[in-house]
Write a structure and sequence with these properties.
The chain is mainly β. Helices cover 9% and strands 33% of the residues. It folds into 2 domains: 19-169, Membrane-bound Lytic Murein Transglycosylase D, Chain A (Roll), CATH 3.10.350.10; 176-339, Glucose Permease (Domain IIA), CATH 2.70.70.10. The protein is built from 4 helices and 26 strands. The structure holds zinc ion.
Length: 347
């Protein structure tokens, strides 16, 4: 699927502008070099550094920026001693994706995504350790809806960094006007909404070990897809654009809803917007969420197996008719549920 290429992170670029940068918490020399279109060697030379250690507040002279990696469209591939990484050639808005790590040191690498620093995402640029799924060491990534800048990744092992990037394409869906009736839109003003938001945000913070070993299943049998993932839409005429963070399946009230994979129930209650809600933690920062249920069959703390019934379709919360809204969230950000079906990992 992807070809491995030699390290590109230390290519030399000619200087074209001078600037300074003030170090913030979590910065590395490599990351600063990558973001400013220069190299670690040039940064060291420009600042007389003989160590890679940085201090918060330290001001660095940036020796120059030039043909930055962001200007290219082809994926670049990084390598470190004893580690190879395989990335997708290309992703699109709302995609989950997988960095596959191989080599003797694959399990010891740390990975982060510096491009997230420019995005509205939860815990941007978080250091991630590979997890073993299906016999491979992987790091899961996500592209948020509405964002099409290239994904940049950084690998770190024993103080040495490398990195690369790959392009992101648009979903290209037209904006839909929902024209929700005022009686239903009123739930968005419900005073109970703050507690609902806090409960799901807490679930988004979970970073438990991956629980699943089998491919993901459908959440509902025979449901008709009524609204696709990532649809940009306005609740009422003239309102700002929101994205549809899940996949809707139209089905009669009482239709069986099942867990898409092995996991542990972390929320099971009825809320103003999501209605009857079940949230399952699958580990590795991945949650599945089942909205608008008329009946809930599981409780918090319970382990569920792939295909186990978790509840029944309903129209509770912010909903105009019986349907299941299924979301998959990776470290808190919505990713396309269809990319997991019949897969252990998104391809
Ligand atoms: Zn929906």
């Amino acid at each position: 699927m992807n070809k491995l290429a030699p390290l590109l992170a230390l290519m030399l670029f000619p200087s074209s502008l001078a600037a300074t940068y003030t170090v913030v918490r979590g910065d590395t020399l490599w990351g600063i070099a990558q973001r400013s279109g220069t190299t670690v060697a040039d940064l060291r030379a420009a600042n007389g550094l003989n160590t890679d250690a940085l201090e918060v507040g330290q001001v660095l002279q940036l020796p120059g920026a030039a043909a930055t990696p962001a200007a290219t469209s082809a994926p670049t591939v990084a390598s470190l001693s004893g580690v190879q990484v395989q990335t997708p050639a290309r992703v699109k808005e709302g995609d989950p994706f997988v960095l596959r790590l191989s080599g003797d040191n694959a399990s010891r690498v740390r990975v982060r995504f510096p491009s997230e620093l420019n995005e509205d995402v939860r815990r941007p640029n978080e250091w991630l350790s590979p997890v073993q799924i299906g016999g491979a060491w992987v790091v899961l990534g996500r592209v948020v809806l509405g964002q099409t800048a290239p994904v940049r990744y950084e690998l770190e092992l024993d103080g040495v960094s490398a990195g690369g990037q790959f392009p992101v394409g648009p979903l290209g869906q037209p904006v839909q006007n929902l024209n929700m009736p005022a009686s239903i839109a009123a739930v968005l003003q419900d005073p109970g909404r703050a507690a609902e938001t806090a409960a799901v945000e807490k679930a988004y913070e979970l970073r438990t070990p991956p629980a699943w070993t089998e491919p993901f299943a459908q959440a509902i049998a025979g449901g008709r897809r009524s609204s696709g993932f990532g649809q940009p839409r306005r609740e009422t005429a003239g309102a700002k654009i929101n994205y549809h963070y899940g996949m809707d399946y139209s089905a009669p009230k009482g239709t069986r809803v099942q867990a898409v994979n092995l996991g542990r129930v972390v929320l099971a209650a009825t809320y103003p917007v999501r209605g009857g809600l079940v949230v399952i933690d699958h580990g590795a920062g991945l949650l599945s969420l089942y909205f608008h249920l008329s009946k809930i069959d599981v409780s918090v703390g319970q382990s569920v197996s792939r295909g186990q019934k978790v509840g029944e379709v309903g129209s509770t919360g912010y909903s105009t008719g019986p349907h299941l809204h299924l979301e998959m969230r990776l470290r808190g950000e919505a990713v396309d549920p269809a990319r997991w079906v019949d897969q252990r990992l998104p391809q």
